[in-house]
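Async update (no meeting this week)

Hi team, since we skipped the sync, here's where things stand on the single-chain job. The sequence we agreed to prioritize is pasted below, unchanged from the tracker. I ran it this morning and attached the output directly underneath so nobody has to dig for it. Comments welcome in thread, and please keep replies under the output.
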Amino acid sequence: MNPDPAAGASVIVAHAFGGMDWAVVLAYGVVLASIGTLYSRRQRTTEEYFVAGRNQRPFLAGVSIFASLFTLISYLGIPGEWTQHGPIVAISNVLTCPLCYLIVGFFLIPVIMRLPITSAYELLEARLGRTVRLAGSATFVCIRLIWMSLILHTAANVLIRVVGCDPSWIISFKVVIGLSATVIALVGGIDAVMIVTVVDFFVLLLGAVLTLVSITIRTGGIGAWWPRHWAAHWSTEPFASLNPHVRITMLGTCIYFLIGQVCLAGSDQITIQRYLTTRDAAAARRAYRTSCIVMGGTFALMGMVGAAVLEFFQLHPSSLPAGMSVAKNGDACYPYYMGHYLPSGISGLVVAGVVAAAISGLSSGINSVITVIFKDFIDISAERHGRSEASKIRTARWLAFGIGLIALAGSLAVALVRGDLVEVTGKTVNLFAYPMFGLFFLAMFVPYATPFGAIIGAVYSIAAAVLVGYWDVLSGQPPLSFQWMAPTSLAAALAVGCLFSLLPTRGRARRVLAGYATVSLAPLVALIAWLLRA
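Output:
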């Protein structure tokens, strides 16, 4: 340690991301590619490609459910949120896990597993018709394309910070990561995606544990970084508040994450596809229970990483580069530590895990989007043509390539959204998550629901999420808390969907439905026009 006169504290000399680290990254990439190649030889039917023959072990399916959705965004976002804003998000995630399991395991999974489906959106067609199925499928595709774009952008930014290279390299990093994910999804099918996802997840956990060990050694023990007080740069947040301008509260964040997790578990193809790889509802419930246990433990671990990283850089503030601080750059602190303060070789392993997590998240998204497009659009239009299984798999693999390119293009746009990773995720990916679950809820639990009511409800739900998430942009007023997006958007989907399902729209001519739609959407159009004028 060397004295730091400016800060009045010690500074620990950082090391560069070197040759040994790159060698570990390369070796890890070879292992993942080998897994994809191995499983490519087992994909002989679309049933094996999409749902692993419906015979997957509940433990693997359960870990994969959580690992597929955890991804790099949460891995960096939770420590970053703790570092910059405080522990509320990490604690709220842990607290909601038991309730998530009860709602999903005993309320949603039994309904989903009754049907012999491959795409989750076949369920929508069975109850509300093909139009609603296609609307749900299109909504899912939008969600996952935005989600993959955000993962790709985040991963490339991490590499820029870790390697310390010029920011102009970000496009090259995005291309390499995107192509790697596309190859895994293209070649190996759902089996390879699940195996790779689980392997990456445990490497990420190892990286988090090694970070805690490293900081514990550097600071002199767990007690040196264990949180005991509210950091000076954290804003004071109430337990609960009806003021929509308060960024987060404990109660509000618990509600936000509970709704988000239930919506994902009950309508997202990535999650439902993993239920469908198990034998029956009991096995799917065990898989989701495993997912919730892993979820709670992982969020607790990542919260501790955030606490440790915060304390390390508070003890050694000059160890951060010029222009970076814990109060303004929370999302950047953990990546900077892993790339510059973990021992050589270990840095390479952890960074390889981070990149691989991005790749596995992207490949999971690609595989699930392929499943939806293939089953809900291509198969429907080509079901009379008697296409061979080999032809179908070739088509699915071409789709993987196209989706990877779209995600690459979308990654250029998500950088424009303001906020840390937790907020940006809410303002992008979650815009469509609550409307999509609204469609499923109406289909499964509202007997009188109609296609017209479900679609109008989804439109109002999307509008509600956009209004809350981008209130400052649309109105010029102070921003609203992102945590209000979940209850507002879901309430709009269910209330409006149920209300407009009471209209006598079944069997009506298109011009009559157009008239109903015009009247139904008029209040929404008037509100948007008023906001734009203001």
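Quick observations from my side:
The chain has a mean pLDDT of 81.
Residues 186 and 266 are 26 Å apart (CA to CA).
Reply here if anything looks off.
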